[in-house]
Model the fold of this input.
Amino acid sequence: MRWLGVLRSSAFWILLVAATVSVWSKQEPSAPGQPEGRTYVGTEACAACHEDLPVGLQRSVHALLEKGTRWNSEGQACEACHGPGSEHVEGGGDPEKIFSFPRATREAQNEACSKCHGLTQAQLGRRSSLHGLSELPCTNCHSVHAAKSFSSLKQSPTATCLKCHDQAKADFRRPFHHKVLEGGMTCADCHQPHGGQDPRQHLRAGGTTNACFRCHTDKQGPFAFEHAPLRLGDCTSCHVPHGSINPKMLVRARVQSLCLECHSASTPGIPGAQPPAFHDIRSPRFQNCTTCHVKIHGSNVSPIFFQ
Ligand code: HEC
Ligand code: HEC
Ligand code: HEC
Ligand code: HEC
Ligand code: HEC
Ligand code: HEC
Ligand code: HEC
Ligand code: HEC
Ligand code: HEC
Ligand code: HEC
Done:
């Protein structure tokens, strides 16, 4: 019982967290995967031969490592990532005797970054997403020494993704599309680049609709009369998010084909109501369903989405 009290007390948790944090922030005697016996020599020693790199580092966020404000790495920023450098220096710059990212395995590279970024989305995504399961190295997208964009990206955010996803590039060239290639938004406006829990794992905050509501807030409701497919939470039952041949980015070229997929006697498995008999879908008047059913995403006044 007393232990239960201790566990419940917030002071206990604060102490536990503090203890854990202090363990994390201690500089390891040897970086993971590094041979024993190497010691830290400090950034100034590296600068003797690698003159430009410390200057470049000063302009990046990782300059914080040199100050040691977040990690116990004051004066040792280079070695915080490359591991202790004594043998490399003594060897006159022997490239075999320092942790080198391009030479390391994908796992070892990701470990080296995750030592500090271990509790971020980047790391959590690694355990569940296709990017993570494929062990894409952080350095495929990020560069420490030659960043070209925010978040230390190697290229512009969209180019970062298109490098591997050719199909997406083709999608965004369809006649009606989100303005990604034009620079109006980025892939990361809808996808979490590091992955997450969703089926298409990369969408933000748990599901398609949430990814879309960030910008299309008017579709969020709640509405007194909701159109069921939206309530079920998926914009992609009607829209192709990248791009489509329909001006409203619908999954079908014509609106009526989309509606009749659910609202027709020939689709018994799907619980959409049948249009009343006066709907003569051969007549042009009835073909563009949304000329009458205007508020197709939901309405506060009309159960059949007229206004
Ligand atoms: C005595 C000069 C010297 C010092 C001091 C020195 N280096 Fe080097 N370093 C070199 C040379 C030479 C190379 C090989 C360059 C090449 O092959 O293109 C090298 C290569 C490297 C590489 C790339 C290895 C590879 O081939 O991928 C890294 C990383 C590196 N050094 C980091 C450091 C760090 C960190 C420090 C400070 C702890 C440091 N160096 C200090 C001379 C030095
Ligand atoms: C935050 C981690 C990190 C820090 C800090 C860091 N490096 Fe690197 N370094 C890398 C990565 C990752 C690469 C692989 C190339 C790339 O992605 O930019 C690399 C590549 C290198 C290379 C070989 C390629 C090249 O650009 O010539 C050298 C040499 C090097 N680093 C030296 C240094 C020195 C010296 C410092 C300190 C001034 C330093 N690094 C600080 C992560 C780091
Ligand atoms: C597929 C490309 C890709 C890979 C692989 C990747 N990142 Fe990122 N990362 C990005 C992009 C794109 C952003 C910018 C996100 C945005 O605009 O919201 C970013 C942002 C970040 C940020 C800053 C914002 C944040 O989310 O905290 C950190 C830190 C980060 N990445 C660390 C990592 C680490 C560590 C790894 C490896 C375990 C990694 N990334 C792997 C693409 C990638
Ligand atoms: C020794 C600790 C440490 C290591 C190792 C480390 N980082 Fe960082 N990283 C930091 C700190 C500190 C920041 C500054 C922001 C913060 O406090 O979270 C940062 C920020 C970032 C950001 C955000 C950049 C921005 O512009 O917002 C990215 C991306 C990132 N790191 C990628 C990497 C990658 C990739 C590696 C491996 C090559 C790596 N980091 C290794 C400590 C580290
Ligand atoms: C280095 C190559 C590479 C880069 C860069 C890359 N990806 Fe991927 N991506 C992959 C691989 C490999 C998969 C695993 C599935 C596959 O084989 O298509 C994947 C899967 C995905 C998926 C899930 C697909 C599905 O079927 O569930 C999405 C979404 C995605 N990536 C988005 C992005 C975004 C957004 C970026 C830019 C931040 C990006 N990718 C950058 C290689 C890459
Ligand atoms: C407007 C939001 C949005 C933007 C911007 C966006 N995506 Fe997507 N993406 C989605 C949605 C939603 C899905 C899921 C589609 C489905 O399940 O039918 C998806 C699916 C994917 C897939 C899985 C395969 C597929 O086509 O279904 C990949 C890979 C992908 N996106 C990559 C990218 C890349 C790369 C970019 C940037 C060039 C990007 N996406 C920009 C919303 C977006
Ligand atoms: C970052 C903001 C943003 C996000 C996130 C976003 N959109 Fe958009 N969307 C826009 C903008 C801006 C336009 C309008 C113009 C354009 O780009 O042509 C648009 C246009 C559209 C259109 C066509 C409207 C028209 O009248 O042409 C549809 C349909 C659409 N979005 C659906 C979605 C869906 C579905 C999602 C989620 C997968 C989504 N959007 C996510 C910003 C966003
Ligand atoms: C039942 C099918 C269906 C679903 C589900 C659906 N839409 Fe639509 N949406 C349409 C149709 C049909 C149009 C075209 C309306 C028209 O022709 O005026 C449209 C048009 C749009 C437009 C452009 C015109 C406008 O009203 O602003 C946006 C933006 C949009 N949808 C976003 C979304 C988002 C975001 C979601 C998910 C929350 C979503 N849609 C879910 C059928 C749907
Ligand atoms: C993904 C399947 C799906 C698509 C596509 C779809 N609907 Fe629906 N719709 C439903 C379901 C399910 C209901 C709820 C039916 C019920 O409650 O009996 C519904 C309800 C309705 C209602 C209200 C009927 C009532 O009795 O409550 C109207 C009107 C309607 N839809 C019109 C349309 C139009 C117009 C389109 C094309 C723009 C469309 N729907 C596309 C599934 C769909
Ligand atoms: C000229 C205007 C108009 C057009 C165009 C139109 N509808 Fe309707 N629709 C109506 C009216 C009016 C009602 C309400 C009838 C009632 O209250 O009995 C209705 C009702 C419905 C219902 C609800 C049936 C129920 O039992 O609640 C569905 C489903 C529907 N329409 C689907 C469609 C589809 C699919 C299309 C396109 C092929 C379409 N409508 C085109 C006027 C229209």
User: Anything to note?
Assistant: Strands lie at 176-177, 225-226, 243-244, 298-299. Residues 248 and 298 are 17 Å apart (CA to CA). Residues 217-299 form one domain.
